[in-house]
Amino acid sequence: MKSSGYFITSDQHKIHYDRYSNGHDKVIIIAHGFYTSKHGVLFMQLVKDLSSEFDVIIFDFRGHGLSQGLFYWTSLEYLDLLSVVEFAHVHYAKIGVMGFSLGAATSIITSSKTAHIDSVVAISTPS
Q1: pLDDT per residue over 82-123, tens digit each?
Q2: 1-17 burial, b for 16+ CB within 10 Å, e for fewer?
Q3: For the chain, what percent of residues have pLDDT higher than 90?
Q4: Which residue, 57, 71, 75, 118, has most beta carbons within 10 Å?
Q5: Residue 106 to residues 2, 15, 23, 49: CA-CA distances in angstroms?
Q6: Is 108 within 8 Å of 82 (Cβ atoms)?
Q7: How many CA atoms lie within 13 A of 116 on its CB side?
Q8: CATH tag for 2-123 (out of 3.40.50.1010, 3.40.50.11810, 2.60.40.3390, 3.40.50.1820)
């Protein structure tokens, strides 16, 4: 079942998300790369592929897709992902994050700021 809405970050940005709930107790949060959005073909296929074993949350970073604000080159985007993780922590026993490019860098930064992320897959991370 798909639901959509907004998370509000600690610095008051509206971050748009889609949640695909299938009754699992573990979730994968997909974090897209720079100048893309959660609606990319790859991300929609990932949602489909992962949904048999996980619930999935996919969101748009600030300045991308349906989310508000400006892009800050990973200096503030961790607040976006952190708002998603805080929501997921209330609903799931295990949280994994799969990030691509900007999303990979932000996933690593965010995992250093919270104990709620159980695993990170970082793909094409800038260094």
Answers
A1: 999 999 999 999 999 999 999 999 999 999 999 999 999 999
A2: eeeeebbebeeebbbbb
A3: 96
A4: 57
A5: 25, 15, 27, 23
A6: no
A7: 20
A8: 3.40.50.1820
